[in-house]
Design goal:
Blueprint: H1 11-31, H2 39-42, H3 48-57, E1 75-79, E2 98-102, H4 103-110, E3 132-135, E4 140-143, H5 148-157, H6 162-184, H7 188-198, H8 205-218
Antiparallel strand pairs: 1-2, 3-4
Helix pairs in contact: 6-7, 6-8, 7-8
The protein binds zinc ion.
Zinc ion binds near residues 62, 65, 67 and 102.
């Protein structure tokens, strides 16, 4: 998980978000509960320009696990503050609440979770590296200074689920091995520069960033 700079609000939301929110809240009032409202009113955030903007903002990666989306999974528009919670219905079409997420994180882990005391970190608002540290030895995320929001984030998004940890470990092992081979040939710097060039096309770009920093010191 890493910080991203939020881009400009997509046109569809600039034009319609206010009206859609008003209509949604009226529907909830009329029907008596959110669950009775037609999806037509709840899912108007599913616009092509919103998807495109989120995909670009996250360079095609999941906002939580940083896997590349679109090769074997569809991207999901994620509401960090769950839209189904009464307090957050009003953020259903709020650009600042929308993120780009893989199906696994979205439907199997984060779901409708929200911790009001220690909210999950917001990748477009919080400086993630002040809260979470990647342990390159284990491939696991660790909370910096036992921060409770970091703990919520790891637990509620499954950031340390076994498959992710193993996949991250595989990346570390392979790159360290390649680095050592290049080091022996005297071109470790070129190898790291090339790694930096391709990291945005890989799963876990922030892991690459951490690894490059670590290996630069080793060099
Ligand atoms: Zn994910």
């Amino acid at each position: 998980m890493r910080f991203v700079k939020r881009t400009e609000k997509p046109l569809s939301l600039s034009i319609y978000a206010e009206q859609w929110t008003k209509e949604l809240l009226e529907q909830i009032e009329d029907k008596g509960s959110y669950s009775k409202v037609d999806t037509e009113y709840k899912e108007r955030y599913r616009q092509e320009d919103v998807k495109t903007a989120l995909e670009m903002m996250y360079t095609g990666h999941c906002c939580y696990c940083e896997s590349i989306i679109g090769i074997s999974t569809y991207g999901r528009i994620e509401h960090l503050k769950p839209k189904s919670l009464a307090q957050f219905h009003k953020y259903s079409f709020e650009w600042d609440n929308l993120h780009w997420c893989c199906e696994v994180c979205n439907t199997s882990y984060k779901k409708q979770k929200w911790n009001f005391e220690y909210p999950i970190l917001d990748p477009s608002l919080d400086n993630i590296e002040d809260y979470l540290r990647m342990n390159l030895q284990t491939g696991e995320y660790e909370e910096i200074n036992d921060n409770p929001r970091a703990r919520t984030t790891i637990e509620d998004t499954g950031l340390n689920r076994e498959k992710l940890v193993k996949a991250r470990r595989r990346v570390v092992v392979r790159i360290v091995k390649d680095f050592k081979a290049h080091q022996q040939c005297g071109n470790a710097q070129t190898f790291l520069a090339e790694l930096r060039e391709v990291m945005e096309d890989m799963n876990f770009p922030s892991l690459y960033e951490d690894l490059i920093t670590y290996l630069l010191v080793a060099e």
